[in-house]
Amino acid sequence: MAHDVGLSMGMLRDSSGDPTGFVAIVRDITESKRAEEALRESEEKHRELVENLNDIIYTVDENGVTTYISPVVESVLGYAPSELIGQSFADSMHEEDLPRATENFLSTLSGNTTMGEYRISTKSGEFRLLHSSNRPIFEGNRVVGATGVLTDITERKRAEEALRESEEKYRTILEDIEDGYFEVDIAGNFTFFNDPMCGIIGYSRDEMMGMNNRQFMDKKNAKKVYQAFNRVYTTGKPSKEFGWEITRKDGTKRFIEASVSLKRNSEGEPIGFRGIIRDITEHKSAEEALRKSEEHYRLLAENVTDVIWTMDNNMQFTYISPSVTRQRGYSVEEAMALGMEKSLTPASLEVAAKVILEGLSEEEMGQKDLSKSWTVELEMCCKDGSTIWTEMEATFLRDPDGQVIGIQGVARDITERKRAEKELKETMADLERSNAELEQFAYVASHDLQEPLRMVSSFTQLLAQRYKGKLDADADDFITFAVDGANRMQRLINDLLTYSRVGTRGKPLQTTYCEAVIDQSLDNLKLAIENCGAVITHDPLPSVMADESQLVQLFQNLIDNAIKFRGDQPPRVHVGVESKDGEWVFSVHDNGIGIDPEHFDRIFVIFQRLHGKQEYAGTGMGLATSKKIVERHAGRIWVESKPGKGATFYFTMPNIRR
After folding, report:
1. Do the Cβ atoms of 318 and 311 come closer than 8 Å?
2. Nearest residue to 360 via CA among 315, 329, 421
3. Cα gap 492→196, rounded to integer Å
4. pLDDT tens digit string along 313-367?
5. Could you say which of 141, 274, 293, 459 has the lowest number of CB atoms within 10 Å?
6. pTM of the predicted model, to two decimals?
7. Between the CA of residue 156 and those of 151, 269, 484, what are the distances in Å?
8. Cα–Cα distance between 30 and 38 in angstroms, integer?
9. How far apart are CA 7 and CA 598, in angstroms?
């Protein structure tokens, strides 16, 4: 393998000074040569890198005179590097920027890194805006110059200024339009909006910033808006002109229409929504009035069995459809001649007059409602002397200025429906009487069974005490079965008595403090709670109109079920309540084994069990009795559950005081 060597030679002489030979020293300089070549290649590579950068690399001495500048300067400023070396940048810098540049240069000579933006003239005389980043050059501890990078930011600055001007222009437009413009983040929180948007919603700018759009709409409309925004998010396509109802700060309702599109960041990722909204309340009212008008004409064309009629402000008929003959036996002329007074029974005439006068009174007070209509049931006279019941739907007739000029309506024969309602009412009364008799029978039957059952139970227990172990094993089993059967029969009869007494032995409803009721129920279940380590909690509970003893039984049954049908963990039961739509909604939630939804109805039927008596004790009467107690209090009871996920039993009671 070849090596590079260094050779040093000297001449050898004798004592007379004559040459006699040579002496030489040979050094292996292979590694030194390689290091020199690597350094040369590195310098070449870095020089190529510097000279091919888009930014200008330069060095200056301590007087600010250029000692090096990269070739790219020619494409930026138009000067060849040779034209600038030996020159100062101060010669081509804008005079307004020179003091700031001088201050930064002196700071660099003090050993600091500095940055700035300066306007520098090109060879053609145009000024370009360059960003300068400088750091000092040291020789030992002394600063002998500076090196830096110049980046042409002229186009970027122009783009930023154009963007600013564009934003200003569009901001002016947004403030001048009547429609509301808004921007929200992905969660629906306002991040930008114009003044008309504040006017439509009714909140100030400070109140709206960061406010969520769900705060000015009810749950139904919030769900509708969520679905629309979600479609925009998932499809990326704008949603145009969908409407919903909002509630302004002052509580008034308004209909708005919106167009919404997706807002993205510079990487194209969704970051929110932007849109335009318009208040269409008046337009919506006009549409509704037109819809009702079209509906009346449709009824006129399609429901020929009904009687269509109109009358003027003097309550005189101006039109009656020919179907009046089939409905009441009169010809059109006869019916129109009768007028309203002779067409209705006295009681119905009074009802009709009251409705019409109330509507006219509201009009006179300025409470005009173009979409208002009335539906009343009126008894009408027939030509043969009989009467029929009709469902009358009516609304005001108006002129182009919206003034009332009469009334139009439709009369539908509902005689058969009224008859059916009467029969249903009578049937319900019979059913209630039958149920009462059945409850009484169940009570009497179960009561009369008590005495013979006590005798059977007593003697079977006596047999067990005296002869257990004295007979064979089969006899012991037979005695055990008899005792167990008698005990279970006793429990069934007692539960049946409790069930029957809900309707027959109930006390009058009176104000009942539920906190005391729940305390009594838990006291009754104290032993069961302690045995399984159950934790029972409850919300603050209200007072209700109830039979206190039955309410204790209701809570006791539901909590006992929660404890009984527990899973591997200790039972955790919570009794909650909320006021909703004029009633109290109670809930009893547990962490037990849960219920399959297919059994939700079955569990409220008497003697229905989902588990064998070996798994869980009971007669299957608890929930049936609970249901009967709730229904006696004019409430409803239901369950929500999944297997293994616990169960929540709900029941309602009217939120009233007597």
Report:
1. yes
2. 315
3. 71
4. 888 888 888 888 888 999 889 998 888 888 899 998 898 888 888 888 887 787 7
5. 141
6. 0.34
7. 11, 23, 94
8. 12
9. 104
Domain spanning 177-279: CATH superfamily: PAS domain (3.30.450.20)
The one-character DSSP state at 248 is: -
pLDDT of 586 > 90? The answer is yes
Question: DSSP assignment of 599-642, as one string?
Answer: GTTGGGSTT--SS-TTTS---S-HHHHHHHHHHHTT--EEEEE-
64 alpha carbon, distance to own chain's centre: 66
CB-count burial class (<10 Å; 0-12, 13-18, 19+) for 540: exposed
Dihedral over alpha carbons 78, 80, 83, 87 (to 10 degrees): 70
Let me know: does 259 contact 280? Beta carbons within 8 Å: no
Average pLDDT over residues 5-11: 67
**Of the candidates 608, 647, 600, which has an alpha carbon nearest to the alpha carbon of residue 625?**
608
Name, in order, each residue with C-beta under 8 angstroms of 73's C-beta and a sequence gap of 6 or more: 56, 58, 79, 81, 84, 150
Of 283, 265, 200, which Cα lies nearest the Cα of 213?
200
Domain chopping of the chain, boundaries: 1-48, 53-158, 177-279, 285-413, 419-486, 506-654
Decide: 237 and 273 in contact? Cβ < 8 Å. Answer: no
Asked if 53-158 and 177-279 have one fold, the answer is yes
- Structure token digits, residue 164: 């600013």
Burial status of residue 53 (CB atoms within 10 A of its CB: 0-12, 13-18, 19 or more): middle
CB-CB contact of 377 with 368 (8 Å): no
The torsion angles phi and psi of 118, rounded to 5 degrees, stand at -135, 150
Pairing mode, if any, of strands 637-641 and 647-654? antiparallel
Contacts of 20 (CB under 8 A, 6+ apart): 12, 13, 14
Q: Which amino acid is at 51?
A: E
Beta bridge partners of 131: 117, 151
Pairing of strands 572-580, 535-538: parallel
pLDDT tens digits, one per residue of 51-94: 556 788 899 999 999 999 988 888 889 999 999 999 988 888 99
Q: What is the C-alpha to C-alpha distance for residues 497 and 440, in angstroms, rounded to an integer? A: 10
Q: Which amino acid is at 194?
A: N
Superfamily of domain 506-654: Histidine kinase-like ATPase, C-terminal domain (3.30.565.10)
pLDDT attached to residue 612: 44
Per the CB < 8 A criterion, the answer to whether 213 and 193 are in contact is no
Q: According to the CATH classification, is domain 53-158 in 3.30.450.20?
A: yes
pLDDT in tens, 131-158: 999 999 998 889 999 999 999 888 888 8
Tokens describing residue 405: 């000029």
- Residue 506 near residue 632, CB atoms below 8 Å: yes
- Nearest residue to 572 via CA among 593, 594, 595, 591: 591
Q: What is the distance between the alpha carbons of residues 82 and 89, in angstroms, rounded to a whole number? A: 14
For the stretch 180-226, pLDDT in tens is 888 899 998 998 888 888 888 889 988 888 888 888 888 888 898 88
| Overall average pLDDT of the 160-178 stretch | 70
Tokens of 61: 């001495």
Q: Give strand ranges (E) for 491-571.
A: 510-513, 535-538, 543-546
562, 538 Cβ separation under 8 angstroms? no
Burial string for 140-150 (b: 16+ CB within 10 Å, else e) reads: eeebebbbbbb
CATH topology of domain 285-413: Beta-Lactamase (3.30.450)
